[in-house]
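Please, structure for the following, as tokens.
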Amino acid sequence: MNGKQRVGLLGGTFDPPHNGHLRLAEAALEQLGLERVLFMPVGDPTHKSRADLTSVSDRVAMTVLATVARDGFQLDLTDALRPEPHYTVTLLPLLLAQNKGTQFWLVMGGDSLRDLHTWHLPDALLTMCRLAVLPRPGAALDWAQLESRFPNIRERVDLLTGETIDLSSTRLRNNPTEIAPHVPPPVFNYISRHKLYD
């Protein structure tokens, strides 16, 4: 893309980071020829209750443990450290200013694309990046509806292919006995040691 660096952005609470996040990042990295995917834990997510959220320090530590062994995965603390509110549309100008000549992709599941109209200023967001989307079970994309709200959105979306995992951090937090098979072993050891979801 005109010699620009190609970088994916995968944001979220990562409470905890799980194999679904890693599968999504892997698909984007390989299929789009990205230099790296930045894992960006959010500090105070706008859509989630603070009372239900594990501390930023624990979520950052788990994200490091989940990604450190994979070349091309990198932790970025820009969103974790900046003041609230934590909207993606206000994050991207910061990243673009710090990374001149970079083409960013927001890496997301199909459910996030389906719900894009609920994001803060989504039209502005689409002018600053592309979307890398891996369809998710149970979240069928209605392109006619998407295009009625976001004309020409298909031109901004790169669909990823491959197996997807129907998994959420919320489900794992609510069912701690299910966590072990769905997170990297170092993450599970951290959760157990710190009794995060007991």
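The first helix runs from residue 19 to 31. The longest strand covers residues 5-12.
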